[in-house]
Amino acid sequence: MTDLLPTTAQPAHPDPASPTFAVISGEQVQKALAGREREITDLVEATYRLHGAGDSVNPPSYFLRFPDRPSSRIIALPASVGGSVGVDGMKWISSFPDNVRSGLPRASAVLILNDPTTGYPFACLESSIISATRTAASAALAADWFSRNRPRPTRVGFFGTGLIARYIHTFLAGTGWDFEAVGVHDLAADSAAGFCEYLRQSGTDAEITVHDSAADLIRSSDLVVFATVAGQPHVTDASLFSHNPVVLHVSLRDLAPEVLLASANFVDDVEHCLKADTSPHLVEQRTGNRDFLNGTLNDVMLGRAAPPPDRPIVFSPFGLGVLDLAVGKYVYDATAAAGNLGLIDNFFHDLRRYG
Predict the structure, then answer these.
(1) DSSP class per residue in 144-209
(2) pTM beyond 0.85
(3) pLDDT of 321 above 50
(4) CA-CA distance, 340 to 349, in Å (whole number)?
């Protein structure tokens, strides 16, 4: 049985003497995050800064793969973040691309939050929305920082038009971006059409163009968003980027080493990004070094690295579990403050050590 605890009765963390467990639905998650793009982007920036300062634990992600389903995987992202967030936990996210054929989103996820004092889990949240939100906030944050020493992009192009692309556009619009043109390219015509319909419903005044080729999309955009399910590089011509766009390489495996070697490259975390055959990892394997990296997003925010104005900028974020925790804790606190925290009665049982 589930009940709703009034706001005044729910502490920020469970009482160690009486641990509780809440389940927060996707509907509640979306309600807590809707219309708060600037606030969440600020939270993601603050979390990057905590991570950069060492006030976090973010071990490597763990991949569960299946010999009989090579395109599918489930990933565990354990993490801990300090500061005002102060929470431990793990995201458990699956990627099953074949879902799209039956009308389901590719990814599904849950997020577990653990109390840092007792270790007890105190909430389970639907997390595909949280994951998409932190990814989009990270992309919007990077677009802002990497555009500060060059003309601000006015033409954005989306290569891949699924849920992540939709969330990234929402966060760009919600943090003040105003585009003259929006380009769209997807291998699936129905996905491109659906994304265009979303764009029209979003109220954008931008001219919307569906491009038949990747080359046309890239050449016509000064901000390019890659949000595909590509497993290996498929964009190989570095000359497509000769107009020096800002590239949000969110899907990590679209760009051939030749493209990255002709660009300035930034990541969210070096050790996380240079593994699992991401495009940056392929460059490291080819060159035997990491000299092609210009730094991290946090380095740029701290002034330790400057994106050059006369080269393409490629941001390749692996996606950090600490961001999921920060956004998940935000959702938990907002849901509790609204008096809508659904607690599971007697989830923890037999708490007496000797019965």
Answers:
(1) HHTTTTSPPP-EEEEES-SHHHHHHHHHHHHTT---SEEEEE-SSHHHHHHHHHHHHHTT--SEEE
(2) yes
(3) yes
(4) 23
